[in-house]
Write a structure and sequence with these properties.
By secondary structure, the protein is of the alpha/beta class. It contains three helices and ten strands. It has helices spanning about 15-30, 50-55, 105-115; strands spanning about 1-5, 5-15, 40-45, 65-75, 75-85, 95-105, 125-130, 145-150, 155, 170-175. A hairpin with a 2-residue loop joins β1 and β2.
Length: about 180
């Protein structure tokens, strides 16, 4: 059990299991993009650890860039997406892989997909460390999923509660 701010969280997914799964995703991306040079579009702040580990597992040429969007307050999605940092480079005719920490309602991802599609990339796929199918409100094609989890709040491995808990090595679930 760990405490983050005013809430208790119990161990949920261990670091070794996370890293093993991310390595598998890196291998799959390497196979799927052979002969191409994907651009990883990392959604800050939560996906930075996932992206770093994922890049280590990709053994083909690839590049990385960052965007920052937000739709969370405390432990719940607000349903409204705010773009805080956007791309400065051209993505036209590029193969993009959006790297996200967690997809729950899908609203943030849908908004981001719309923004990126308007800039005419060759392709866009999504890699997410976690997916909450029960919470998803819009249809999304998630090509690379680390773990499907139930609709409970989690922290650690880049995911936060009110800015804290990102540095936890594993993923922890809210204890009720």
């Amino acid at each position: 059990m760990v405490t983050v701010k005013d809430k208790s969280f119990r161990p949920f997914i261990e670091q070794i299991d996370i890293e093993r799964r991310i390595a598998e995703l890196g291998e799959q991306i390497s196979k799927d993009y052979i002969g191409r040079q994907p651009l990883l579009v990392v959604v800050l702040n939560g996906a930075f650890l996932f992206a770093a580990e994922l890049m280590k597992g990709i053994n083909i040429p690839c590049e990385i860039t960052f965007v920052r969007v937000s739709s969370y307050e405390k432990t719940a999605s607000t349903g409204q997406v705010r773009s805080l940092l956007s791309l400065t480079e051209s993505i036209e005719n590029r193969d993009l892989i959006i790297v996200e920490d967690i997809v729950d309602t899908g609203l943030t991802m849908t908004e981001l997909l719309g923004q990126l599609t308007a800039r005419r990339p060759n392709s866009i796929e999504i890699a997410t460390l976690l997916h909450k199918p029960e919470a998803t409100r819009v249809p999304l094609k998630l090509r690379y999923v680390g773990f499907e989890i139930e609709n409970k709040f989690v922290v650690g491995y880049g995911l936060d509660y009110d800015g804290l808990g990102r540095n936890l090595a594993g993923i922890y679930q809210l204890h009720v």
